[in-house]
Amino acid sequence: MKILLVGEFSNVHWTLAEGLRQLGQEVCVVSDGNNWKNYPRDINLQRASNSKMDAIKYIAKLLYLLPSLRGYDVVQIVNPCFLNLRPEKSLYIYRYLRKHNKKIFLGAFGTDYYYVKACMEGNVFKYSDFKTGNVFRDNPENREAVKENLTGGTALATKEIAETCNGVIACLWEYYISYKPYYNDKLTFIPLPINISSVVGKPKSEPEKINIFIGIQSARTQIKGTDIMLPVVRAIAKEYSDCCTVTEAVDVPYAEYQKLLEQADIQIDQLYAYTPSMNSLLAMVKGVIVCGGGEPENYDIINEKELRPIINISPNADELYDTLKEVMVHKERIPELSAQSIEYVKRHHDHVQVAQQYLDFWNLH
């Protein structure tokens, strides 16, 4: 099968491509490397800046590439916003790809119309990026995101793509449940892929001094919850300075991020998540314990009945402080949770196993 993967979030498409290639498939990944994260790709579609001249150069390069993006058995885009263009402009490229390839699939891998709609309407989530209970987390970042995703170009693009594509693949429970009321007949959930062949670590022993790792995207501190998590982590480190240290990774490239992460005992990540992200899973397979999204829904959707490696956190500063305090007080739990973390990723997220699930879904639709 000849497969084209367009766009990148958190190395998902590149890791999926590695799994597909091991299964004998021909794969091409086209992306900008997820900007400063600089993930691997086969064709680099990076935009230098938002200036008018760089926009013209980017569009020219894209148009030059288009003839080579024809004739694939499967095309998958990472999100309705799969290019560094306004979403409504990306629709023209989507229509071209749909016309000149056999099948096209939408990845529900991030924020889009249906996810924001689920966050803002009804009681789908007890907390989310945008609301805690019935209270909107009112800040400029959230206001702009809600406006763009519910009434702007992202809304327009998401609706058309979801309606006309061959299928939708959600990588997290949150995205799956958001699409389910509308596209259940062509929707599936497939876990995130992790290339375990080169990154599996050894279970951590009980450390003398716990190293807490926190990754910071400076442009998305409120969406990710870093504005709440970071002060709590610093407060814990101050109170327990004799047995705790903190590593803050601010906007670092992927390779440097991984090196820093390997030295950690605990990773704190994604305050509003129900399920672990790619970064969390990469931490877990290295034996690093994740404080993040570990709600019951996460274990249910993958039918995991035994392992409970994730220390679930809630979006409340006091509760988060108490959770991290428990970690400091009960360091003896680290070896067991570390071993469970490795087994969890090996059991559910092996990239070859995940790639086969993609092939099965693509072939059915």
Summarize the structure.
With 365 residues, the chain is an alpha/beta fold. It has helices at 12-22, 52-65, 87-100, 113-120, 140-151, 153-164, 173-183, 221-224, 226-239, 254-262, 278-285, 296-301, 317-329, 334-348, 351-364; strands at residues 2-6, 26-31, 43-44, 74-77, 103-108, 131-132, 135-136, 167-170, 187-189, 210-216, 244-250, 266-268, 289-292, 311-312.
Provide structural commentary.
The model has no long low-confidence stretch (mean pLDDT 95). The chain is built from 15 helices and 14 strands. The radius of gyration is 20 Å and the shape is globular. With 365 residues, it is an alpha/beta fold. The chain has a 7-stranded parallel β-sheet with strand order 3-2-1-4-5-8-9, sandwiched between helices. Strands 11-10-12-13-14 form a 5-stranded parallel β-sheet, with helices on both faces. A two-stranded antiparallel ribbon has the order 6-7. The chain has 2 domains: 206 residues, Rossmann fold (3-Layer(aba) Sandwich); 139 residues, Rossmann fold, CATH 3.40.50.2000. Helix content is 45%, strand content 16%.
